[in-house]
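Progress against Task 2.4 (sequence-to-structure conversion) is shown through the following example record, which the project officer requested during the mid-term review.
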Amino acid sequence: MSEREETRRIQFTGKSSYIVSLPKQWIMELGLKQGDQITITREGRSALKIIPSKEQTKATSGEEAVLEITREDNNAAIVRKLVSLYFLGYKTIQIKPKGDRLQPGQRTAIKSAVKGMLMGAEIISDSVDGITIQVLVNLLELTVDGAFKRMLHLAKSMLKDALLAVKEANLELAKEVIDSDDEVDRFGFYIIRQLKIAIQNEYMLREMGFANARQCLGYRLIVKNIERTGDHAVLIAKDLLEFKKSVREDAMEKIEDLNDFATSVLDQACLALFKEDFAQAEKAIEKASELSKYEKRIIESVKAIKDEEEAYRIRRMTENIARIAEYASDIAEIVLNMNVEKLLRKRP
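Structure tokens generated for the chain above:
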């Protein structure tokens, strides 16, 4: 039985009540004392949840924030402040003008940020006198793992579509890839919000499935690598929009092979994350070391291309995809760090 589990007998007292004692060590660690209130919640037909009221207060302390802005505040700065408040876990964010009214450009920037960047956020009040934003999503309905898997799928799809757009010289598909980056960022911001809430509250940390705050840091670094994967897909799409034509077929085939390799390493590293598997992470790192073999094939083919512009585009696409294999290796390294303690021999 772990340190987080205790077996206690239910006792009968009075005429209609049952009582159960709690371990003294738990009470001391939580900073509770005689007379403190707790909340008992029935979950389904087979579980009870006991939450100290002060823990509930901490978990919901970020209920409402008021952000005052002036006429001189630029749109980018306002959006950065809004995102920061979202990260901190506030459920309601009021944006009010300081001594004036919200400017049209400021209102547009705020509404665009809410719609395009903040998952679960809705504008419930909008006027020149202020905007009220409410975060409606339940943090435990969409788990960190669930959000991360959707984010990963989106980033990989963007990469595949970006290469297809270049292959077919499909400008509309390239634009769709660029637009999809906002969705990847939305999942990333949502995960960061969850992680910050988990770090600040031990109860939420356990509810989200983390053993300790260090795991949250590891996840934060991994999420950043997936965001960058989407960014490189955008760069490939923008290349097509800039030059408006494909590249030679033989080079494109080698680039697609490199992409298959990079995404396979990424899949292996992320599988190690989900399984908390140290050995799987090591395999991903070993596989990533084969990257140079794929790069050399493309470099050799570029030497025979006389069109300098096309050669430059091929090298740039190669660099973008190679970065993804490197990010996958970084993810695997983080998974190693998150799970290395499992290899330690336990003392008898």
